[in-house]
Amino acid sequence: QAQPVESGGGLVQPGGSLRLSCEVSERVFTTYSMAWYRQAPGKERERVAGILSDTGTKYADSVEGRFIISRDYAKNTLFLQMNDLKREDTAVYYCNTLAGFLPWGQGTEVTVSS
Asked: d(Cα 106, Cα 70) in Å, to the nearest integer?
């Protein structure tokens, strides 16, 4: 399975917003529930948002109400809209299936700092 390709990260001030994108193969995108994960320095990778095949979504408590996961079937692209960013959101963000069985991509780095 080809690894996902994430993009959209960057440096943002606390309270700011970013929109992450992730491209995966059409077969994977149309077959599996997808998710965003993140790994902060010195910490284990954690799942922050998932979108089920029937468009239902789930979020980690730490991002509930601030992050929105969505998918565009026409573009085979997964998105993560991140609002009201906090310093503790600083991490490398990855996308994968909800089960996390694809090879991990390079991720996209998000730094929240003033």
From this structure: 20
